Amino acid sequence: MIQVPLAGKVVFVDWHSVLSRDPFWMSIRESATHPLKAQLEANLAEVFKSKANEWMKGLLSSEEIIKSMDIELDGRFREDFLTRRLYVDCAKMRVNAELFEALRKIKSHVLVVLATDNMDCFLQTFDRARAKRRRPTPQSETLADWAIILDDIICSSEVAALKAEDPQRFFGPWLAKHGFTFADAALIDDRADNCAAFAEQGGKAVQYKMGIGDVHDVLHALTIWMESGTGTPTAGMDWATNLPRTS
């Protein structure tokens, strides 16, 4: 059972374009010479055009997606090569270490939960990484290193809903289980539709995109949100970074 901090609040944080920008099968897709790159890129483009929502909502499994791509493997590759490589590459996804470090520092104040429209392969990789309880070091830069920092995960492939499409179905059961409402929750997300849907339910939405937005701005917005709900000052310092405020 997750121990809820005294502040009684939760920060949900998105994955793609917020905590990481790496794609599935990155070791193949980022290689200039991999023999499967052209096939994979072409077939994935079709998958994301026609089947992405079904995959993210758990209506299709990763195995079914791989089978539907019908990629020809020559004698150099075992039949399960693409499945194995998918999971290995998920664990090696490079992360936004600056934002992860900030999230680690705020965990004494709030719960921090990954909230992602994502696939079964990602959820399973995340769960395995957290189970290993590996602690990140200054050199850590992958999902496998940083997963332990997060308190929990909500994944669309498990709840069968997308954030913008049905925020009540996506977030509602988790919030109710832990004694929260949307008024106790904030969401960090890069997509305007996700932020709007969350805000319409009474939550605090902070739009941020990795590589474009400023982590300090995100933390400042969360600081104001926290204090407005509790009336408790934070000693004139940004509670995530220990930097003087610039308001």
Automatic annotation (TrEMBL):
InterPro entries per UniProt: HAD-like_sf, HAD_sf
Name of the protein in its database record: HAD family hydrolase
